[in-house]
């Protein structure tokens, strides 16, 4: 039994750093000593809305401390990145190649099939406690399934590696995997926070000729150009229907609109915005995971426009994490530059405050200074 500091939430807006106990590895489990954990808007949403006690965090990287008897993919001492979309490898979606929406293990797909519940190996105040997305990465130690880890063989700081398993993959994967952006095309990215910057990087890696960044903050557009944007457009909160933005986009795209547009803001009022920016037969992508009801003007779908809502950039972690890391190693993908600020567990309140007020692209909690 290991005692570990962790961020615990009641799912009703409250959270604190407290102590948990982590048990022995099950046969297919891996004990990871977390070195770094990303801070994500989804963490904040879960703190506000889950209505149950849980260990916060779903982005992380660390080092293997122990393994179960049937674990074969990693060994004690290996560096690993955590992956929250844990595939079973056997359900219908996994067999179809859609491992990111596994019907058995997915904490978000809501398919209603058996197998969602996980036996919790962690306790808080002598009671079993769930781990956010079956990970709970804002903890000094996390017990996870072996399918939730990807071995890290590249030379990269843990802080930068920790954000690959959600923020990077959601933006980059939505462009590369889901939309399959073509070389020479035009791309709009609405919202230039952490996810938007990775969508911009994905568009650059795909060979897009024009990458148009859209945000309400000039400093974010400046940063977007450092990550690959070729043009920037300032939006205003009053232009909810993106009428002014649309005209500027058309002026940059021969009067017809962009080939692709990606919504990366999580603002429900902007759910239809990418449709307004694409040409006929273009592709609009809702990246940020808006879950509220949205009313659409059906004229926005004219003509032959496609609107998709991929989960997690359609990530296959064993395939995509190494691809991202190879691009990083070749100097074609910025990861360290995404980390605006680091914190310790005791500073987590400041981390969330910086996130919510747009002061950072990505924040990372450091749990082991000796590895950083």
Structural description of this entry:
With about 375 residues, the chain is of the alpha/beta class. It has two domains: about 1-165 and about 335-370, Medium-chain alcohol dehydrogenases, catalytic domain (Quinone Oxidoreductase, Chain A, domain 1, Alpha-Beta Complex); about 170-310, 3-Layer(aba) Sandwich (Rossmann fold). It is built from ten helices and 19 strands. Strands 3, 5, 6, 10, 11, 18 and 19 form a seven-stranded mixed sheet that branches. Strand 18, helix 10 and strand 19 form a beta-alpha-beta unit. Helix 4 (about 165-180) crosses helix 9. The radius of gyration is 20 Å and the shape is globular. The two termini are about 25 Å apart. The model is unreliable at about 110-115 (pLDDT under 50).
């Amino acid at each position: 039994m290991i005692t570990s500091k962790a961020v615990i939430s009641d799912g009703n807006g409250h959270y604190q750093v407290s102590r948990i106990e982590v048990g022995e590895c099950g046969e297919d489990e891996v004990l990871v000593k977390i070195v770094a954990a990303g801070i994500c808007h989804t963490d904040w949403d879960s703190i506000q809305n889950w209505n149950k006690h849980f260990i916060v965090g779903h982005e992380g990287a660390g080092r293997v401390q122990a393994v179960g008897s049937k674990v074969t993919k990693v060994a004690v001492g290996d560096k690993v990145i955590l992956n929250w979309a844990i595939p079973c490898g056997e359900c219908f979606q996994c067999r179809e190649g859609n491992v990111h929406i596994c019907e058995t293990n997915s904490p978000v797909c809501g398919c209603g099939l058996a197998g969602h519940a996980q036996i919790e190996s962690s306790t808080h105040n002598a009671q079993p406690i769930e781990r956010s997305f079956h990970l709970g990465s804002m903890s000094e130690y996390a017990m996870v399934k072996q399918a939730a880890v990807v071995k890290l063989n590249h030379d990269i700081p843990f802080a930068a590696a920790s954000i690959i398993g959600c923020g990077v993959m959601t933006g980059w994967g939505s462009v590369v995997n889901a939309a399959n952006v073509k070389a020479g095309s035009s791309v709009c990215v609405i919202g230039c926070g952490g996810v938007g910057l990775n969508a911009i990087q994905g568009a650059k890696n795909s060979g897009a000729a024009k990458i148009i960044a859209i945000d309400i903050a000039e400093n974010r557009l400046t940063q977007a150009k450092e990550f690959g944007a070729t043009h920037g457009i300032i939006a205003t909160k009053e232009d909810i229907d993106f009428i002014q933005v649309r005209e500027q986009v058309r002026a940059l795209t021969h009067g017809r609109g962009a080939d692709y547009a990606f919504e990366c803001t999580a603002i429900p009022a902007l759910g239809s915005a990418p449709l307004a920016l694409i040409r006929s037969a273009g592709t609009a992508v809702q990246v940020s995971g808006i879950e509220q009801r949205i009313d659409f003007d059906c004229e926005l779908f004219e003509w032959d426009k496609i609107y998709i809502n991929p989960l997690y950039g359609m990530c296959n972690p064993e395939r995509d994490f190494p691809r991202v890391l190879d691009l990083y190693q070749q100097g074609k993908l910025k990861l360290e530059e995404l980390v605006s600020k680091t914190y310790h567990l005791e500073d987590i309140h400041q981390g969330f405050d910086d996130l919510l007020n747009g002061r950072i692209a990505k924040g990372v909690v450091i749990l082991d200074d000796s590895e950083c």
